[in-house]
């Protein structure tokens, strides 16, 4: 087991390097980098006409000032030097400093993380609280009208993108009916509210974003639970348990459900981490939630490369560790699994 863990940890290094190299090449050489954006803003502020800015163009900016701007953003060095300098920083977990916010990337992540945790935690909990019981009920009633109807609803929820559902919810429940707020996680004056009022205000704001994310996230878990339970129900030990006189409820929950949980439990780490960082970009942008998804979107639009690469490095590392934990959960749940 120790050798397997060590091998997986060593394999994370080339994976991280590959992800960072590909992303670095893409973001560093696309047009409209931070230097061009700085010059464009300077031109707009000075009322200078003209567009199509590039490193060759210095209309309204003298050459010395242009070189100073390049040095400010680190573009005075060759690309390979910038890449290896970035790797050295990331090895020390120094994610750099944001061009747009003029703050450390770590500080930005800490500021935006509570919003993403709120969305991810509620999405994860509600998804599994709905998916697992629903999957068991579908397996017990396999082939019935209930099974057919719930499968249809689950597939519809899975097929409709979360941001499309979010737009519908915003228009209907936020705009027309005005039952829920249109943006943010708290109301103005939240600091002056009592604890009960704060909890209610928070839940009032988080409802529509969470519904938008949950609608399509529990479909896979529901069908996985159903198929796992169906597979266990058909095995010989279930017939033996019934022959011994055990009731259907005991057979289901004490024997079948425990074994059927193996593929579900092993997916917990990846699903838990994915709920925080995956799929929230459009939802956070749509509902104007100041989280990691919105931060990533704005950093890409503004070519804030330290934020783009720093957050990508962190999320990739967390994802690789979560995948390793998921694989180790197989041994924890089912001791018969041997990696060697």
Q: Would you write up a description of this structure?
A:
This is ABC transporter permease subunit. Its main location: membrane. With 340 residues, this protein is mainly alpha-helical. It folds into 2 domains: 31-94, no CATH class; 105-333, MetI-like (MetI-like fold, Orthogonal Bundle), CATH 1.10.3720.10. It is built from 16 helices and no strands. The termini are close together. The relative contact order is 0.14.
Please supply descriptive tags for the structure shown above:
single chain; 340 residues; MetI-like fold; membrane; transmembrane; cell membrane; transmembrane helix; ABC transporter permease subunit
């Amino acid at each position: 087991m120790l050798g397997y863990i060590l091998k997986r940890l060593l394999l994370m290094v080339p994976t991280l390097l590959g992800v960072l190299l590909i992303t670095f090449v893409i973001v560093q050489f696309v047009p409209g980098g931070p230097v061009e954006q700085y010059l464009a803003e300077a031109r707009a502020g000075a009322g200078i006409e003209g567009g199509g800015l590039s490193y060759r163009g210095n209309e309204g900016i003298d050459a010395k000032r242009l070189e100073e701007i390049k040095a400010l953003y680190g573009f005075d060095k060759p690309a390979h030097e910038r890449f290896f300098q970035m790797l050295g920083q990331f090895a020390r977990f120094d994610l750099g400093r944001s061009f747009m916010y003029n703050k450390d990337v770590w500080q930005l992540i800490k500021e935006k993380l509570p919003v993403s945790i709120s969305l991810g935690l509620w999405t994860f909990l509600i998804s599994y609280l709905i998916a697992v019981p629903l999957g068991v009920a579908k397996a017990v009633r396999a082939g019935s009208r209930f099974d057919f109807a719930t499968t249809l609803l689950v597939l519809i929820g899975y097929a409709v993108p979360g941001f499309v559902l979010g737009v519908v919810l915003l228009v209907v429940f936020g705009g027309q009916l005005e039952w829920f707020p249109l943006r943010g996680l708290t109301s103005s004056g939240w600091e002056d509210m009592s604890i009960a009022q704060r909890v209610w205000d928070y839940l009032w704001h988080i409802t529509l974003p969470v519904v938008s994310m949950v609608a399509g996230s529990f479909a896979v878990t529901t069908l996985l639970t159903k198929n796992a339970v169906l597979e266990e129900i058909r095995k010989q030990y279930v017939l033996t348990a019934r022959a011994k006189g055990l009731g259907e409820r005991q057979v289901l929950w004490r024997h079948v459900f425990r074994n059927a949980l193996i593929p579900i439990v092993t997916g917990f780490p990846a699903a838990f981490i994915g709920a925080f960082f995956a799929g929230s970009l459009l939802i956070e942008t749509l509902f104007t939630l100041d989280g990691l998804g919105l931060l990533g979107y704005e950093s890409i639009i503004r070519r804030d490369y330290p934020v783009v690469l720093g957050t990508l490095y962190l999320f990739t590392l967390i994802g690789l560790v979560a995948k390793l934990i998921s694989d180790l959960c197989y041994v924890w749940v089912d001791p018969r699994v041997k990696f060697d």
